[in-house]
Amino acid sequence: MKVAVVGATGLVGTEMLKVLEERNFPLTELIPVASEKSVGKMISFKGKQYPIVSMDTAIAMRPNVALFSAGGGTSLAHAPRFAEVGTTVIDNSSAWRMDETKKLVVPEVNADVLTVNDKIIANPNCSTIQMVVALKPLHQVYGIKRVVVSTYQSVTGTGVKAVTQMMNERKGIHDGEMAYPYQIDLNVIPQIDVFVENGYTKEEMKMIKETQKIMGDDSIAVTATTVRIPVMGGHSESVNIEFKKDFDVAEVRALLAKTEGIVVVDDPTNLKYPMPKDAHQKDEVFVGRIRRDESQANTINMWIVADNLRKGAATNAVQIAEYLVRKAMV
């Protein structure tokens, strides 16, 4: 079982290596891939040193699985080349997510759509992943009509440059390369990705379209506002869900609590609710502040938090690979 990690030196790539090691993924050979300037440098994995190789070298080695986190352009250019030699690519960029010929997968939600013929599999947007993990069991029981989501997203979702910008601003340093058009420390930026013609951002449209594709139901109406906030550790979401049927709040809480991949933290009496600092370096999706929306029928509010580099990216990709191994598809 040869596994390539493309983008091995980036924030998500580094996390992929960590998750592979922590979950004891059954690989026999690791193939770290990065840009030409990193070729030859060494990466440590399970106490062994592995040299970073070029894209061409990795393709020639014909890995069973390639975990991609190197940007959309790289994925569009090179994922098909891996697929041509029989490698199953799990891609963390937005390159293939809305391609009708590619599956968009969150294992707890729709892993059953995968077949042995799927050679390029898309990993969804981080903010979408954590939301649909919570939506799926509720949709099965109550039927979801509409979702209104507002996100509070960590700077780690933008990458190292954004983390550096925030930490420099915290120290009073305001020069150097900027990841955002405005100061992020002590501020909130209601824009993630670029604006499109309808006034939404690409990030917001991703959440809308990806949710429908993953849930396999275009009738679910979704509207989103995505916001960058000066935190690390994970993304938070305020989610308002309108169901087709009425519900009991305690029943909803119990349903979520028994769902794989979800931890319910919902005890307002003792001030217990999910926060990014508590989700950091964890693979679960944390749900709390579960309460009925008293302004309209059949509607509930909840607060959803997850580590965007883990479940929102690296862990989800590795979980897809684990599913493929279990089903002998790679």
- How many separate structural domains? 2
The helix-strand sequence is EHEEEHEHEEHEHEHHEEHEHEEH
- What is the CATH level 1 assignment of the largest domain? Alpha Beta
CATH structural architecture of the largest domain:
2-Layer Sandwich
Number of distinct helices = 10
Based on DSSP secondary structure assignment, what is the total number of beta strands? 14
Shape: globular
Largest sheet: 6 strands, parallel
| Straight-line N-to-C gap | 8 Å
List segments where confidence is low: pLDDT < 50 over at least 5 consecutive residues. none
What is the CATH superfamily classification of the largest domain?
Answer: Dihydrodipicolinate Reductase, domain 2
Strand content: 15-25%
Reported by name, the CATH topology of the largest domain is: Dihydrodipicolinate Reductase, domain 2
Helix content: 25-40%
For the residues shown, what is the average pLDDT? 97
**From the alpha-carbon coordinates, what is the Rg to the nearest angstrom?**
20 Å
Strand order of the largest sheet: 2-1-5-6-8-7
Structural class assignment:
alpha/beta
